[in-house]
């Protein structure tokens, strides 16, 4: 575990948490991404024990509660997010932990029907350790579903309506956001290839059920103006912002 990066990112998330209240939460899988209503990856969630990795403001867990799950568990790095999630989930019986996802904090093993993560997994400093822990938390036959930025999308820039490639998709290194969300806190994320996510899942024992390179949601049916923003409908119509993986133990 890279404690220096984790401590730095924790401070960062404590500051930027308020920008993400209710953002990137189920039924959405991410920006300009198809929804769970469109994709139906989870199936019937009634009486399932679920664990979210990187629960953020708790809105995805709230969605899970609305689907009738029996137990709501979550791990997130940031104390500010934990406070936000406690507000969102007020009145519900929850097990919320403030810890890095890559650390073994003694969560029950062979216990969960579903482990899921919406736009948080890529923050791990140790992908293999994180996937191994998740594999262990799941019951045999349990499902792991997560979404994250499509690793090529980050390299696609726009100029005068044309999309071009910046930097190298080949290089898997650290990327620093010097001023994330304008809050003046540097945050560090590992750049990984799509194959790294898939092969690491296979290495720790998962069976991959589906890989989705998402189209835009049906709700985005209007014209897409040319835009140089990082997430734009214009760009998302040409290339997926998000990939989603469903795997089983
Ligand atoms: C974009 S937010 C996820 C939003 C969330 N899905 C929701 O429903 O609100 C990413 C989350 O990952 C958490 N995070 C970042 N690094 C982490 C780590 N190493 N371990 C656990 N959580 C982490 C952040 O604190 C943040 O809450």
UniProtKB/TrEMBL annotation:
Signal peptide: none annotated. This is Methyltransferase type 11 domain-containing protein. Residues 51-146 form the Methyltransferase type domain. GO terms for molecular function: S-adenosylmethionine-dependent methyltransferase activity. InterPro entries: Methyltransf_11, SAM-dependent_MTases_sf. It holds the Pfam family Methyltransf_11.
């Amino acid at each position: 575990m890279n404690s220096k990066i984790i401590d730095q990112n924790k401070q960062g998330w404590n500051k930027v948490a308020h920008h993400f209240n209710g953002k990137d939460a189920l039924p959405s899988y991410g920006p300009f991404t198809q929804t769970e209503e469109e994709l139906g990856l989870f199936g019937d969630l009634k009486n399932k024990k679920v664990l979210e990795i990187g629960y953020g403001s708790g809105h995805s867990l709230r969605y899970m509660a609305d689907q009738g799950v029996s137990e709501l568990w979550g791990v997130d790095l940031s104390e500010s997010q934990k406070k936000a999630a406690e507000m969102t989930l007020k009145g519900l019986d929850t097990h919320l932990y403030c810890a890095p996802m890559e650390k073994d904090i003694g969560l029950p093993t062979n216990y969960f029907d579903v482990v899921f993560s919406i736009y948080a997994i890529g923050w791990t400093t140790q992908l293999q350790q994180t996937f191994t822990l998740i594999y262990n938390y799941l019951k045999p036959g349990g499902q792991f579903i997560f979404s994250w930025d499509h690793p090529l999308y980050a390299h696609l820039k726009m100029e005068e309506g044309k999309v071009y490639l910046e930097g190298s998709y080949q290089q898997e290194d650290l990327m620093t956001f010097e001023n994330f969300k304008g809050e003046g806190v540097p945050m560090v994320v590992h750049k990984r290839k799509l194959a790294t996510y898939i092969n690491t899942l296979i290495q720790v024992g998962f069976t991959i059920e589906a890989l989705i390179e998402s189209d835009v949601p049906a709700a985005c049916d209007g014209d897409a103006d040319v835009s140089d923003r990082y997430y734009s409908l214009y760009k998302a119509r040409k290339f997926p912002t998000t990939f989603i993986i469903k795997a089983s133990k």
